[in-house]
Amino acid sequence: DDEAQNGATELHMDSTQAPVQAYAKLEGPDFCYYVRTLEVTLGRHPTSAHHESVDIDLGDSKAVSRRHAKIFYNFVSQSFELQVFGKNGCLVDDEYFKRGQAVTLR
Questions:
Q1: Which of 42, 38, 11, 15 is nearest to 27 (CA)?
Q2: Which burial class, exposed, middle or buried, applies to 68 when counting CB atoms under 10 A from its CB (0-12, 13-18, 19+)?
């Protein structure tokens, strides 16, 4: 099914839904994603078929690259990490990380 292929599922939970089995949950002001694979990509939705799609669409802002970052499980450190690919970097817990850096997620 599409959810298994995408690796992330966008859900708007209400009290009638059953619990979701996932490795992690990402929450923002208007969304909630359940991560169901050990690696997901974050970015802007591609504008053509020539660009690869992302698992988590961060919106249409040009500040977000088409492939902005990935979240993956690091088996050595036994934790999830975020690796930054976007030229504008990203903020994690109010700390700025530039392209090429990785940060362990809590």
A1: 11
A2: buried
For residues 73 and 39, give the distance between their C-alpha atoms in angstroms, rounded to a whole number.
Answer: 7
| AA identity, residue 67 | R
Residue 47 gets which letter from DSSP?
S
List the structure tokens of 78: 């036994």
Give the CB-side neighbour count of residue 38, counting CA atoms within 13 A: 5
pLDDT tens per residue across span 26-67: 887 777 889 999 999 999 877 766 667 888 888 888 898 989
Q: Are the C-beta atoms of 65 and 87 separated by less than 8 Å? A: yes
The span from the CA of 67 to the CA of 57, in Å, is: 10
Distance CA 54, CA 52 (A): 7
Q: What is the CATH number of domain 24-104?
A: 2.60.200.20
- Torsion angle, alpha carbons of 64, 56, 37, 79, to 10: 40
